[in-house]
Amino acid sequence: MLPVNIASAVYVSPANQFPTGSVMSIASRYKLLAWANQNNSIILEDDYDSELRYFGKPIPALQGLDKNHRVVYFGSFSSTLFPAIKVSYMILPPNMAEIFASIKANYTQTCSKTEQLTLALFMENGYYYTNIRRLRSLYAQKLQLTITSFAKYGMGFIDAKEHKIWNQHHPRCQIRKECRDALPRSRVSKAICGNAKSELRNRTKK
Questions:
Q1: Tally of CB atoms within 10 A around 82
Q2: Which candidate, 123, 131, 160, 165, has a CA 20 to 30 Å from the CA of 41?
Q3: d(CA 99, CA 110)
Q4: Cis amide bond preceding 3, omega within 30
Q5: pTM for this prediction
Q6: Short-list 5, 81, 77, CA closest to 48
Q7: Three-state SS at 192
């Protein structure tokens, strides 16, 4: 429940809520923006995983829908490039950007300038978008293989269905009640994951 008549801040990850993976609907995004405007509040938007969608059109980020400068937008490249790069960014509303500009001389950032310049060139030449398309294809294959492996190797133990949540797919799995005590989950998961990895390696080689 969001506070009313109290200036505050709320942190959200609308593109991929943890731990369910659900995506905030466009109606809910407009409601959240209206709340922030009416209560003189700020929304901290972590747009985690928004690039990796597998079907349909993307829902606009809160920052893109915001007309009243209420959203601080965060992003990084750890999930689309590799975690070790440690490059992230922040888009501030104009009034906050002015404040930041006045104090940024006191801030020492630790990100490598070489990595920043290399990433800028990588994006400028279109390689980043090409990489995103490759990842979408690869992860979609992995997701489908996961669902197939649950059905194939977990038969009798696990009921698995492909579950669509707005613009992403998520496997929804449930270990059957009668099997929970008969076989430890660790043994089931290891057997399924081992077979799934083997099949993925075989597909990659082809």
A1: 9
A2: 165
A3: 21
A4: no
A5: 0.70
A6: 77
A7: helix
Using DSSP, state whether 184 is helix, strand or coil.
coil
| Sole residue written with tokens 């090409």 | 130
In DSSP notation, 51-68 reads T---SSPPPPPHHHH-SS
| R_g over Cα of the chain | 21
**Which residues are 163's β-sheet partners?**
170
Q: How far apart are the first and last CA of the chain?
A: 52
- Residue 95 structure tokens: 């009034």
Token duo for residue 169: 């797919």
Report the distance separating Cα 202 and Cα 205, nearest Å: 5
Chain mean position to CA 8: 25
DSSP H or E run through 122: helix 113-124
As given in the structure block, the two tokens for residue 145 are 């293989």
Report pLDDT digits (tens) over 51-70: 776 666 678 899 999 999 99
Report strand pairing: 9-12 vs 88-91.
Answer: unpaired
CA distance 181 to 191: 17
Question: What CA–CA distance (Å, rounded) separates 112 from 133?
Answer: 26
pLDDT in tens, 106-127: 887 778 888 889 999 999 999 9
